[in-house]
Design brief:
The chain is α+β, with helices and mostly antiparallel strands. The chain has 21 helices and 15 strands. The chain binds protoporphyrin IX containing FE (HEM). Pfam families: An_peroxidase (PF03098).
């Protein structure tokens, strides 16, 4: 095949090199003619990607390319996901039917019957747990499937929606406990975008989801997924810093300077701030916004330390080493602090997801492509049941000040920057309890999950409904996959469910093999030693194992380009989310050591000066001369 090479001039560095244009789905190079066809059909953005030649000694690229040297485009955005179980659909790729051939029960009906609605505080976890879980979800996902029905196709419940294949609104049953008193009979929703729907692959093949994030955990909520966005919106090109602004004495990511912004709910004239960051997460759901601000600041703090210790390092070296440290900090917190609290540390050690040893760890397998499973984000949706519907705000002495429905903060970054709200929200993140892990959903998420953006939205109905459009096999097939035993009749579920919940399923579904994956997750018992349902545990662990073994740049590896020394890794191991908040959170002088867990006698507040952090002297470069010149080897990171 004739391969199309274009001459490339790197965005700022005037370096030219050859670039190959690839098909995002098949990972094969495409011809000039094929590229022209994509341009004509307006599919170039989704269906093609540009690959700059790989250098095996180069660090992690922002666009995810060259992670796997055999399959260099895998690991980039818009590349296919893997499936734990093959999909099942009805004809025309509509959701599967019940075994008897009837339609499955309506998603909203199932949600209202299987999940209670209400709010009780959890005794163990804080809201910070949700914020960081959300940040990590955003790292490997994208928002377009939500934006699609909120902004671009708000009409699915109207006559126009009937003729648009993308429209898949959720019908509200006539006897709905909430809406039988309203005139709302339908909630807007669209089908997830797929390689088929955006025109990369023929329509007569089963839909495979397409997303814009890279599938590795690479802090893309901060740095973005493309070098272009990072250069335009992120890098300051000075001292390794990310661009920043100071407003009200606080440091913020840069803001949009034009009238056009996505912060539609900003209450003008007071609320004006809207971030102009490489990725949308910075202005999305409140928890992500907050975490993006923290980690944005953290990057600048890290590179400032590195520059002080190594005055001979140039902007590039400071930026990329700083980024590598921030990615490692995020993953160290997620793998060794957050997930052990949720999944059970011993479970994770036994399943090989984490090590009880502080040294290097190398599970890399070049035969595994860096990918996420289609099932992984879907089971993360279970965490909507532990999300508190309001954001509570406290002062630094711990006095409760006010609260606001969290959904009213979506696309409303301006709220953070007025009246010291970011200080109060930051205090709230480690003082407010999460919602209890109790088979119930906060009505804010269950009835008005998009706040003023959509009159009624049950996020959990969407969770179940969307999963049907991904063609997931029945819940029991996932149980069999996870537990390695068969489940033939409803009573067999007693292994993972309380009898009264099995009864609920039996009343609604005709057959055990009809039960939806999401419905099963909602009412499953928790894994022994952890706080998440058995199947959520299984699918999360499967993903994290895949991630650790397929990411060539995984921070715990000794044999990766620009790898940490053992001394540096041991410094990274000292980090905690409490230390991060002490360093970059507003007005944080005291915090509990394990900030994902509530303050209490075994986890008391302590001064930030008592909380261990990273000693950046581990990054001291002995080849830096006193005169500021550098005598060491070149740093291997291209701006690609
Ligand atoms: C515990 C914290 C949370 C986690 C882990 C979480 C995770 C997720 C995940 C994984 C998705 C699916 C995204 C996709 O497949 O592309 C999702 C969808 C969504 N989440 Fe959350 N979320 C959390 C909290 C929230 C909060 C606080 C809100 C706002 C009030 C929210 C609103 C939504 C909405 C509107 C959707 C789109 C629903 C749809 O697919 O139509 N989430 N969330």
């Amino acid at each position: 095949m004739f391969v199309f090479f274009i001459q490339y001039t790197s965005f700022f560095a005037a370096v030219s090199s050859s670039v190959i244009v690839f098909d995002t789905y098949t990972a094969t190079p495409i011809t000039l003619e094929e590229l022209k066809q994509h341009d004509k059909r307006n599919t170039t953005f989704w269906c093609t990607s540009q690959l700059y030649p790989c250098n095996p000694y180069e660090g992690r690229r922002v666009d995810g390319s060259c992670n796997n040297l055999r399959y260099p485009t895998r690991g980039m955005s818009h590349t296919p996901q893997y499936r734990l179980l093959s999909p099942v659909f009805d004809k025309d790729f509509e959701p599967r039917r019940s075994k008897s051939g009837n339609s499955l029960p309506l998603p909203r009906f199932l949600r209202k019957h299987l999940l209670l609605e209400g709010y009780i505080s959890d005794r163990k976890f804080t809201q910070l747990t949700s914020h960081i879980l959300l940040l990590m979800s955003g790292d490997v996902l994208s928002f377009h499937d939500t934006v699609n029905y909120v902004l671009w196709k708000p009409y699915c419940c109207k006559p126009k929606g009937k003729s648009d294949r993308a429209c898949t609104p959720n019908k509200i049953p006539d006897d709905d406990p909430v809406h039988r008193f309203s005139n709302i009979r339908c909630m807007n929703m669209t089908r997830p975008e797929s390689f088929q729907s955006v025109g990369c692959v023929r329509q007569d093949t089963y839909p495979e989801r397409i997303i814009t994030a890279t599938p590795t955990f690479d802090a893309s909520t901060i740095y973005g997924n493309s070098i272009r966005n990072l250069f335009e919106k992120g890098r300051k090109f000075e001292g390794g810093l990310l661009k920043y602004e100071v407003e009200g004495g606080k440091i913020w990511p840069p803001s949009v300077k034009t009238a056009a912004s996505v912060c539609f709910l900003n209450q003008k004239p007071h609320e004006t701030r809207c971030h102009d960051a490489p990725e949308d997460g910075a202005n999305s759901v409140a928890g992500v916004n907050l975490a993006v601000i923290w980690f944005w600041r953290l990057h600048n703090r890290v590179v400032t330390e590195l520059a002080r210790i190594n005055p001979c390092w140039d902007d590039d070296r400071l930026f990329y080493i700083g980024r590598d440290i921030v990615i490692a900090i995020q993953m160290q917190i997620v793998m060794y602090e957050l997930l052990p609290a949720l999944l059970g540390k011993q479970n994770m050690v036994s399943d090989g997801v984490i090590s009880s040893n502080l040294g290097f760890r190398d599970l890399y397998n070049e035969n595994l492509i860096p990918q996420i499973s289609v099932e992984y984000p879907s089971v993360l949706r279970w965490f909507h049941t532990i999300q508190s519907g309001s954001m509570k705000m406290y002062d630094a002495q711990g006095y409760f000040l006010k609260q606001i429905p969290i959904a009213n903060l979506t696309l409303r970054t301006g709220y953070f920057a007025v009246d010291n709200n970011i200080d109060y929200m930051t205090q709230g993140s480690f003082r407010q309890a999460s919602a209890r892990f109790d088979y119930a959903v906060d009505p804010e998420l269950g009835e008005s999950g998009l706040g003023p953006h959509q009159r009624a939205l049950d996020i959990l109905t969407n969770d179940l409904s969307k999963n049907r459009y991904f063609g997931f096999q029945p819940y029991v097939k996932y149980l069999e996959f996870c537990l390695g035993r068969s489940f033939m009749k409803f009573e067999d579920l007693e292994y993972v469910m309380d009898p009264e919940r099995i009864e609920m399923l039996e009343e609604i579904y005709e057959n055990l093999e009809d039960v939806d994956l999401q419905a099963g997750l909602w009412i499953e018992k928790f894994v022994k030693g952890g706080h998440v349902p058995v199947t959520v545990y299984c699918i999360m662990v499967e993903q994290m194992l895949r991630t650790v073994s397929s990411d060539r740049h995984w921070y715990e590896r000794p044999n990766r380009p620009n790898a940490f020394t053992l001394q540096q890794l041991l410094e990274i191991r000292k980090i905690s989310i409490a230390r991060v908040l002490c360093d970059v959170g507003d007005s944080v002088t005291h915090i509990q050591r394990r900030a994902f867990l509530r303050i209490g006698p075994s986890n008391p507040l302590c001064g930030c000066n008592e909380i261990e952090g990273i000693d950046f002297w581990a990054w001291e470069d002995s080849t830096c001369s006193n005169d500021g010149s550098h005598n060491g080897p070149d740093f291997k990171q291209k701006n690609q």
